[in-house]
Structures are given as C-alpha cells and as structure tokens.
Amino acid sequence: MNGLVKLYDERRGWGLIAGDDGALYMLRGGQLADAAPRVGERVAFEPQKGGGGLRAAAVRRHADG
Question: What gap in Å lies between CA 42 and CA 31, rounded to an integer?
C-alpha cells in the first residue's frame, strides 16, 4: 500500500501514515534505514492489524520522493 507521512516525532520514534485507503497507520521509528521519515513524504508499506490498531510494516520510500 502507499501513503503519506502525516506526523513523525523523531525523539519518540513514532508517527502516522495516512494510507491511500483513507486509514491511519502507526509508524515505528527505525524502519527506514538511512534517515527518519519526513512529514509529507510518500512511502510504500505493508498494512498490518495489531493490538493497538493499524500498523505500517516494511516501510520504504518511493523512488520519486
């Protein structure tokens, strides 16, 4: 799935991705190896359901940014 980083708190290492399906997914820090995600950045991810709600796994940057 694709989405847009809506929020990211680098100090706490978490944020939110707005999926193209309209749902919000929790993003955990450290998933992107080279640098922290930036608000407004397009990403691809695997949606998962967790105990606390929807989560983004295997997050990767879009080649076009």
Answer: 14
Residue 39 contacts residue 7 (beta carbons within 8 Å): yes
pTM score, two decimals?
A: 0.87
Alpha-carbon distance of 50 to 41, in angstroms, equals 24
Contact status, residue 3 vs residue 39, Cβ threshold 8 Å: no
Query: Do the Cβ atoms of 5 and 32 come closer than 8 Å?
Result: no
* Interatomic CA distance for residues 30 and 23, integer angstroms: 22
Each residue of 17-50: pLDDT tens digit? 999 999 999 998 776 767 888 999 999 999 999 8
